[in-house]
Amino acid sequence: MPGTSARESRQYPGEFALPPPAPTSFRQTLSVLRPGPFRRYMMGEGISMTGTWMQAMAQGWVMTTLTHSAFMLGMVSFAAGVPQLLLTMLGGSFADRYDKRLILLITQVVQILSSLTLGILVLTHRIQLWHVFALAALLGTSNAFEMPAASALVPE
Predict the structure, then answer these.
(1) CB 152 within 8 A of CB 95
(2) pTM of the shown model
(3) 140 and 84 in contact (C-beta within 8 Å)?
């Protein structure tokens, strides 16, 4: 055949030609989000991630308000990032050994309580630098256990 290589024109023993992919509609693509467990999971994960990023932004805002220092703002992000870096593999091990839903429930409660603590400390004007660092480290630790459990829960 003109324009095709020898490899493309020959079919070897044991090989089979794949049919062309069926055209999919937008509705078929989004059918995975029909009511059910995966939809609930995705909605919950969306809300959780929104809350996590809101807390991270609030911590940065509080640190900037308290210190007006770019260095301290970076240190708060560092305080949240180090536990994630060091503990995520341990979190993955926990996700493999223990109930993923329980891990997610515990991490969500920890994140909610840390967000409430930050909010209450700010509203009562009792916030100090160490509070922000401790809550950032707690958020990073919680994320180190949440992310592997959430990722491992999707295939189930």
Answers:
(1) yes
(2) 0.77
(3) yes
